[in-house]
Design a protein that fits this description.
This protein is a component of the acetyl coenzyme A carboxylase complex; first, biotin carboxylase catalyzes the carboxylation of the carrier protein and then the transcarboxylase transfers the carboxyl group to form malonyl-CoA. This protein has 1 helix and 10 strands, in the order αββββββββββ. Helix content is about 10%, strand content about 35%.
Length: about 160
Protein backbone atom coordinates (compact mmCIF):
# COMPACT_ATOMS: atom_id res chain seq x y z
CA UNK A 1 0.00 0.00 0.00
CA UNK A 2 1.59 3.27 -1.06
CA UNK A 3 -0.89 5.75 0.48
CA UNK A 4 -2.31 5.77 3.98
CA UNK A 5 -6.10 5.61 4.16
CA UNK A 6 -7.73 6.83 7.37
CA UNK A 7 -10.55 4.35 6.98
CA UNK A 8 -8.17 1.34 7.02
CA UNK A 9 -7.83 1.29 10.81
CA UNK A 10 -11.61 1.47 11.26
CA UNK A 11 -12.00 -1.24 8.62
CA UNK A 12 -9.56 -3.55 10.42
CA UNK A 13 -11.29 -2.97 13.76
CA UNK A 14 -14.64 -3.77 12.13
CA UNK A 15 -13.17 -7.02 10.77
CA UNK A 16 -11.91 -7.94 14.24
CA UNK A 17 -15.38 -7.25 15.66
CA UNK A 18 -16.97 -9.47 12.96
CA UNK A 19 -14.51 -12.19 13.86
CA UNK A 20 -15.51 -12.05 17.53
CA UNK A 21 -19.27 -11.63 17.02
CA UNK A 22 -19.52 -14.55 14.59
CA UNK A 23 -17.10 -16.81 16.48
CA UNK A 24 -14.79 -17.04 13.46
CA UNK A 25 -11.10 -17.84 13.68
CA UNK A 26 -9.89 -16.04 10.56
CA UNK A 27 -10.92 -13.45 7.96
CA UNK A 28 -8.93 -12.37 4.91
CA UNK A 29 -9.90 -9.39 2.76
CA UNK A 30 -8.28 -7.45 -0.09
CA UNK A 31 -9.21 -3.88 -1.01
CA UNK A 32 -8.10 -2.37 -4.30
CA UNK A 33 -7.78 1.43 -4.27
CA UNK A 34 -6.08 1.83 -7.62
CA UNK A 35 -3.47 0.35 -9.91
CA UNK A 36 -0.63 0.41 -7.34
CA UNK A 37 -2.62 0.86 -4.16
CA UNK A 38 -4.22 -1.99 -2.24
CA UNK A 39 -4.83 -3.19 1.27
CA UNK A 40 -4.55 -6.90 2.10
CA UNK A 41 -5.72 -7.78 5.61
CA UNK A 42 -5.77 -11.09 7.42
CA UNK A 43 -7.35 -11.01 10.88
CA UNK A 44 -7.06 -14.18 12.91
CA UNK A 45 -7.49 -15.24 16.48
CA UNK A 46 -6.10 -18.21 18.31
CA UNK A 47 -8.63 -20.27 20.17
CA UNK A 48 -7.50 -21.75 23.45
CA UNK A 49 -8.16 -25.47 23.39
CA UNK A 50 -8.94 -27.39 26.54
CA UNK A 51 -5.91 -29.31 27.74
CA UNK A 52 -5.82 -32.95 26.78
CA UNK A 53 -6.46 -35.36 29.62
CA UNK A 54 -3.19 -36.51 31.10
CA UNK A 55 -2.17 -40.04 31.91
CA UNK A 56 -3.15 -41.32 35.36
CA UNK A 57 -0.76 -40.28 38.09
CA UNK A 58 0.15 -42.60 40.94
CA UNK A 59 -0.54 -40.93 44.29
CA UNK A 60 0.65 -42.17 47.64
CA UNK A 61 -2.02 -42.15 50.34
CA UNK A 62 -1.06 -41.21 53.91
CA UNK A 63 -1.34 -43.85 56.61
CA UNK A 64 -4.71 -43.87 58.46
CA UNK A 65 -3.08 -42.40 61.58
CA UNK A 66 -1.93 -39.27 59.72
CA UNK A 67 -4.55 -36.54 59.25
CA UNK A 68 -5.52 -36.11 55.61
CA UNK A 69 -5.88 -32.44 54.81
CA UNK A 70 -7.06 -32.32 51.22
CA UNK A 71 -9.03 -29.56 49.65
CA UNK A 72 -10.93 -30.10 46.44
CA UNK A 73 -9.05 -28.43 43.62
CA UNK A 74 -10.86 -25.50 42.10
CA UNK A 75 -11.66 -25.82 38.41
CA UNK A 76 -9.47 -23.78 36.11
CA UNK A 77 -11.20 -20.47 35.56
CA UNK A 78 -11.12 -18.54 32.31
CA UNK A 79 -9.37 -15.21 32.97
CA UNK A 80 -11.44 -13.59 30.20
CA UNK A 81 -14.58 -14.20 32.29
CA UNK A 82 -13.13 -12.45 35.37
CA UNK A 83 -15.03 -9.18 36.00
CA UNK A 84 -11.69 -7.40 36.48
CA UNK A 85 -10.22 -8.56 33.15
CA UNK A 86 -8.76 -5.91 30.86
CA UNK A 87 -8.82 -7.24 27.28
CA UNK A 88 -6.78 -6.33 24.25
CA UNK A 89 -8.62 -3.99 21.89
CA UNK A 90 -6.52 -5.20 18.94
CA UNK A 91 -4.11 -7.77 17.54
CA UNK A 92 -0.47 -6.88 18.09
CA UNK A 93 2.61 -7.29 20.25
CA UNK A 94 2.37 -6.56 23.97
CA UNK A 95 4.94 -4.51 25.87
CA UNK A 96 4.99 -4.19 29.65
CA UNK A 97 7.30 -1.11 29.65
CA UNK A 98 7.77 2.00 27.54
CA UNK A 99 11.12 0.77 26.21
CA UNK A 100 13.50 -2.18 26.67
CA UNK A 101 15.14 -2.07 30.09
CA UNK A 102 12.65 0.44 31.52
CA UNK A 103 10.54 -0.30 34.58
CA UNK A 104 7.18 -1.92 33.75
CA UNK A 105 4.08 0.27 33.73
CA UNK A 106 2.51 -1.88 36.47
CA UNK A 107 3.33 -4.89 38.60
CA UNK A 108 1.14 -7.32 40.55
CA UNK A 109 -0.03 -5.58 43.71
CA UNK A 110 0.19 -2.03 42.29
CA UNK A 111 -2.74 0.32 42.78
CA UNK A 112 -3.82 1.93 39.52
CA UNK A 113 -6.02 4.92 38.72
CA UNK A 114 -8.63 5.00 35.99
CA UNK A 115 -6.92 5.93 32.72
CA UNK A 116 -3.43 4.97 33.92
CA UNK A 117 -1.39 3.12 31.27
CA UNK A 118 -1.21 -0.60 32.03
CA UNK A 119 0.55 -1.89 28.90
CA UNK A 120 1.29 -1.04 25.28
CA UNK A 121 0.08 -2.99 22.24
CA UNK A 122 2.09 -2.39 19.08
CA UNK A 123 -0.06 -2.77 15.98
CA UNK A 124 0.94 -1.73 12.48
CA UNK A 125 4.09 -0.02 13.86
CA UNK A 126 1.94 2.14 16.15
CA UNK A 127 2.29 2.01 19.93
CA UNK A 128 -1.18 1.97 21.53
CA UNK A 129 -1.38 2.60 25.27
CA UNK A 130 -3.88 0.39 27.09
CA UNK A 131 -5.46 2.45 29.88
CA UNK A 132 -7.00 1.08 33.06
CA UNK A 133 -10.80 1.15 32.65
CA UNK A 134 -11.18 1.81 36.39
CA UNK A 135 -9.22 2.29 39.59
CA UNK A 136 -8.13 -0.87 41.36
CA UNK A 137 -5.25 -3.19 42.23
CA UNK A 138 -3.36 -5.32 39.71
CA UNK A 139 -4.15 -8.93 40.73
CA UNK A 140 -2.57 -10.73 37.76
CA UNK A 141 -0.63 -9.93 34.59
CA UNK A 142 -1.56 -12.59 32.04
CA UNK A 143 0.89 -11.74 29.24
CA UNK A 144 4.65 -11.70 28.76
CA UNK A 145 6.65 -8.79 27.41
CA UNK A 146 7.08 -9.02 23.62
CA UNK A 147 4.44 -11.73 23.20
CA UNK A 148 1.84 -11.63 20.42
CA UNK A 149 -1.67 -10.87 21.61
CA UNK A 150 -5.03 -11.46 19.94
CA UNK A 151 -8.07 -9.21 19.86
CA UNK A 152 -10.12 -9.69 23.02
CA UNK A 153 -7.40 -11.65 24.84
CA UNK A 154 -7.29 -10.93 28.58
CA UNK A 155 -4.16 -8.95 29.49
CA UNK A 156 -4.49 -7.94 33.14
CA UNK A 157 -6.86 -8.74 36.02
CA UNK A 158 -7.78 -5.81 38.26
CA UNK A 159 -9.24 -6.27 41.71
Amino acid sequence: MTNTHDSDVAFIRALAELLRENDLTELEVSREYGEDDALNVRVARQLVAAPAPSAPVQVSVPAPSAPAATAPSAPQEDPAQDPGAVSSPMVGTIYLASEPGAAPFVQVGDSVAEGQTLLIVEAMKTMNQIPSPRAGTVKRILVEDGAPVEYGAPLVILG
